[in-house]
Amino acid sequence: MITLTGHEAADAGTQTDSAITAMEALCVMYGCLSDAEPTDIGDQAFSYTQPGYVYTWVRVGPMIAWVITADTAGETSEEWAQELVPILRDALASQ
User: Fold this and answer.
1) Are 49 and 35 in contact (CB under 8 A)?
2) pLDDT 10s digits, 5-18
3) pLDDT tens, 31-58?
4) Phi, psi of 49 (to 5 degrees)
5) Which of 60, 72, 61 is nearest to 35 (CA)?
6) Exposed/middle/buried for 15, CB within 10 Å: 0-12, 13-18, 19+?
7) What's the 3-state SS for the chain?
8) Phi/psi at 42 (nearest 5 deg)?
9) How far, in Å, CA of 72 to CA of 36, rounded?
């Protein structure tokens, strides 16, 4: 499953500022898990695993992608997220 969220500008900040704030909130919510770790994808990312699942959040500019994979023996969500980053960058560049 892949979920994309675009963030609107809040107050005097930009859309990207809003997305950064949202990622910080996600890190507080999910990053407290013992196996959560930063991931070197996009502008900002982290992932964690639970039995049978891998969860990865990645931010590119004002867009946040949440990628979940259920088959940890196959491609991980981090691998999916790495493939998603160039697509997000291209979509942002075309706006």
Assistant:
1) yes
2) 777 777 777 888 88
3) 666 666 777 888 888 887 777 787 888 8
4) -120, 150
5) 72
6) middle
7) CEEEEECCCCCCCCHHHHHHHHHHHHHHHHCCCCCCEECCCCCEEEEEEECCEEEEEEEECCEEEEEEECCCCCCCHHHHHHHHHHHHHHHHHCC
8) 60, -145
9) 16
Query: Nearest to residue 27, comparing CAs of 14, 38, 16?
Result: 38
> Which tens digit of pLDDT belongs to each residue from 63-89?
888 888 886 566 677 777 788 778 878
Angstrom distance (rounded) from CA 48 to CA 53: 9
pTM of the model: 0.74
